[in-house]
Input
Amino acid sequence: PSADTIKFSTGGVERMSITNSGVTGTGIGAGKVLQVVSTNTTTENSTSNASAGDYYPLTSNAITVTSGSTLYVFANYHHWTQDTGSANIYGRQGLEREINASGSWSTLRNAGAYESFGAATVNAGGGSPSVYPNQVSDIASLNGIWTHGQSTGTSIKVRIKHGHQVPNPVDLLVFHRTGIESNIIIYEVAA
Output
């Protein structure tokens, strides 16, 4: 080999070569980031007397995948809950995915799995709850890895699922309060 070439071999077989032109060899490209789709919002979304149930504060733009790839999903979102009549505020958070704009959403992780379960016993001011409302504010971080098994050209979206549980109803549920940014970032990585 020339002076500006480095070669790697195992078992007497050349596996990789590095030259001025780049890297070549067996397995090169595995683990390569194929594309990144990023979606964010700072638009406040507020619900008064919010019933227990599922809320979806952010849905990603679609990513068109390649067969055999894996999606690495990172998300964060801000939620703020306030109630004057309950000292307990809790719920769960997770990620869901949709294939080819089907309208059918499933958990990104194993069925029924959630990345986070938030619970708080609160009293913000130490006095009567009607004077000092109970409140919880959090920027939840969520993530998931999904080897999708879809063919090349399939479109996939991911959304954040915020499952509010107690109290029912809660006085106020706010996402992205005061313009706090929420994000979903999807990395598609080659097999």
Notes: The two ends are 30 Å apart (CA to CA).
